[in-house]
Amino acid sequence: MSQVLREHAFGMLTAGMFTRAVARECNGQKHPFTEVIKANIGDSHAMGQKPITFLRQVVALCSFPELLNSPSFPEDAKQRARRILQGCGGQSLGSYSASQGVDCIRQDVAVYIEQRDKGVPADWDNIYLTTGASDGIVSILKMLVSGQGRSRSGVMIPIPQYPLYSAAISELEAVQINYYLDEDNCWALDINELHRAYQAAKEHCHPRVICIINPGNPTGQVQSRKCIEDVLHFAYEENLFVMSDEVYQDNVYSPDLQFHSFKKVLYEMGPEYFNTVELASFHSTSKGYSGECGFRGGYMEVLNLDLEVKAQLVKLLSVRLCPPVSGQAAMDVIVNPPLPHEPSYLQFHKEKSAVLGALAEKAQVTEQTLNTVPGIKCNPVQGAMYAFPRIFIPPRAVEEAKSLGMSPDMMYCLRLLEETGICLVPGSGFGQREGTYHFRMTILPTTEKLKVLLEKLRDFHIKFLKEYASLEEPKR
Amino acid sequence: MSQVLREHAFGMLTAGMFTRAVARECNGQKHPFTEVIKANIGDSHAMGQKPITFLRQVVALCSFPELLNSPSFPEDAKQRARRILQGCGGQSLGSYSASQGVDCIRQDVAVYIEQRDKGVPADWDNIYLTTGASDGIVSILKMLVSGQGRSRSGVMIPIPQYPLYSAAISELEAVQINYYLDEDNCWALDINELHRAYQAAKEHCHPRVICIINPGNPTGQVQSRKCIEDVLHFAYEENLFVMSDEVYQDNVYSPDLQFHSFKKVLYEMGPEYFNTVELASFHSTSKGYSGECGFRGGYMEVLNLDLEVKAQLVKLLSVRLCPPVSGQAAMDVIVNPPLPHEPSYLQFHKEKSAVLGALAEKAQVTEQTLNTVPGIKCNPVQGAMYAFPRIFIPPRAVEEAKSLGMSPDMMYCLRLLEETGICLVPGSGFGQREGTYHFRMTILPTTEKLKVLLEKLRDFHIKFLKEYASLEEPKR
């Protein structure tokens, strides 16, 4: 097996490097496929999604303000750009912003949150613009676990989880506390499992934080309001800091489900909760309908942060000076899109609906097709951008993988990649219950390509099952 | 004294926050000034410097590729933009790049370095694009000190230094090893002082890294070729990793001085050095003539990195996914500016020369004016963007500051800010020899404003000296 494919599967290579390397290899060595189909990273534009015109118009206007005189740009885009530039030192994207972000953009974020949450008050003093959501997540974790003595702070994370969390926890030398999502129940968060994990962890560390990803990555579930309330009640009782990763808040596909923000639910639980539970929630330009990963835009909102901790946070953030200002501008458009009476509204609305409509369709196609394959079982993709199906791996394949020193789903994904050119991520990278195997695939390829992918995957899986079922007992 | 001013002086507030807060205060409370003049941060555009047209054209074209059809953009800007977009997934700035950065931009950086260093070979595999230079500096430090056991790794840094270094070292729980620059010799790096610091530190830690800032921040000196050779020889002998912060490489004002890159000097010392000394050098979009801080663009070049360490670095960088792609595009323009035969050359050259010419003039005005003030002594501002003059603070003022629990130069700067609206940074934030006092001021205000600043500063200083000289002995 080639080094490039291997390294990639082990997460050592990223998007561009991988494509280049595989292309190089395809020229040199022979692979039994002509095209690599990447369904491993939530990288919408790389998979062919087009940018939202209005967002890019605003960023271009901010970048080159001479365009404000151009008749080919709509007035609402110009108005957004002028406002952002007025918030920048020297009216330039090239100035450092405050490390919390440009004031007027933070104000727009607060207004957006109030509207999203049907009037729950949002104070822009609690809004921090970030370099993507990851930056905010790592900063908050850093602050909390250093504040409490590194070796003793425990952080509760879902399993499966987006590996940013486990990586950050390990780097900060905090204790990772796993709570397992309920695969048999559409990956729902089970409050009893939270209690179990908490009680077990209390023996050897000081649980301080609980992280939730809603809608889920890699699991695609959308949390119910009741479940969020349970989690918040639990956090209140146990005095846990709640980190709610809500970067997929616009990505809900099941018509009977709805995104509820942790903050809104907390508010509705009454002032005893709303004024005490420490909460940080995260959003980003990278997902949703815009898919602007490269701009590294994002924000976080914090609630009930201790004043001293807040001062520490500002200090911590000031070391990286400021988040990229063009990413801040992109974030502004997402929280402050064209209104119905504005000239760009129709086109914006059309583009947004097209992206979200296509994703909803692909979510369904993916789930349905995967469930026709013997030995694959896929929960509904209710939200986010991923399916995380369970795959049956025959015992002989499991043994072979073990003898090769790799996890069985890793071997599965590597073989899939080598034989079909389809690039997925093994479930073991996200965590899974002992003895179960999964992969994560994005629903981002175009519908056409996605169908090809699913067909190839089905054929591969059936062949894989056959191969390992028909093998004789290895000679001893 | 107001909380805002205090907090700012203590480094708790950053650019935008400060301006807003002071404006608010100016409305409410009464200050004996009508305008705050900020000379505390190297934030060119905020101080009125205009963006380089060509750079912004390329970024705008990349952001909104429809503009590639517009006749109002020059062909060379379009060609740059097309090339960058071809290097992006889905030809969009909105895709994640590889965590090392967009390939073709890294190639352009390598070509730039080869030209800058008169043919010394540069391999683009050694180039990493970063989120400003800070990101690269922190990443390299993180990798090195964790690789060697945190509590034992020592990092040699100049004093005075840009406080990013001390902050990162402290956060990583490494040992800070101070080597003092020679103020009496234009802040030159003294090789004997390096030996002294190293020998003393060896007693209690394992010195692993030496950091150099050239041209100097906050000290503005430009290092001689001979001195660089001495440092590299020292690093070779003592097996130290060299981190050379060269973000001011375009900011050299003394006509008889020249920037020498550490890499070029290392090359000229012969293969025994060039193939063994571990080196990382850093550059950025934020300084030079472009002053594009907000884009958070930068790169680093590494040499002789252990392969395993390199793999670790890639892993570390992949956690932050990728540097902002529009910052990468800005970096590309800086390393790949218009050539003499291209349509944008004349305007680009004119704008670049105007910025650098004005800075050179202001460097001279600052030094000369400060040296006319009794009790202030300023070395020539040979490069970078700062003066770091030594100020005489009368013993009675020193005592008063101590009784207030603050450093004397902090008290000085706070009073300056309160009485004149001039915002500087106390030398104690950068480190200085015991019993000496300094401040750092940028040379970034417009020439006109800079002259006002220097005049007000002179008046303040004279008044300050008088006040503390004429005080009676405090009653006991």
Automatic annotation (TrEMBL), chains A, B:
Keyword Secreted belongs to the record: no
MF GO annotations: L-alanine:2-oxoglutarate aminotransferase activity; pyridoxal phosphate binding
The biological process GO terms on file are: L-alanine catabolic process
Residues annotated as signal peptide: none
Which GO terms of the cellular component aspect does the record hold?
cytoplasm
Q: Which CDD domains match?
A: AAT_like
Alphabetized InterPro entries for the sequence: ALAT1/2-like (IPR045088), Aminotransferase_I/II_large (IPR004839), PyrdxlP-dep_Trfase (IPR015424), PyrdxlP-dep_Trfase_major (IPR015421), PyrdxlP-dep_Trfase_small (IPR015422)
Q: Does the keyword Plastid apply?
A: no
Q: What are the alphabetically sorted keywords of the record?
A: Aminotransferase, Pyridoxal phosphate, Transferase
Which pathway features in its UniProt record? Answer: Amino-acid degradation; L-alanine degradation via transaminase pathway; pyruvate from L-alanine: step 1/1
> Which cofactors are reported in the record for this sequence?
pyridoxal 5'-phosphate
**What does it do?**
Catalyzes the reversible transamination between alanine and 2-oxoglutarate to form pyruvate and glutamate.
The record's note on quaternary structure and interaction partners says: Homodimer.
Give the family, as the similarity comment puts it. Belongs to the class-I pyridoxal-phosphate-dependent aminotransferase family. Alanine aminotransferase subfamily.
Name assigned to this protein: alanine transaminase
Organism, per UniProt? Oncorhynchus mykiss (Rainbow trout)
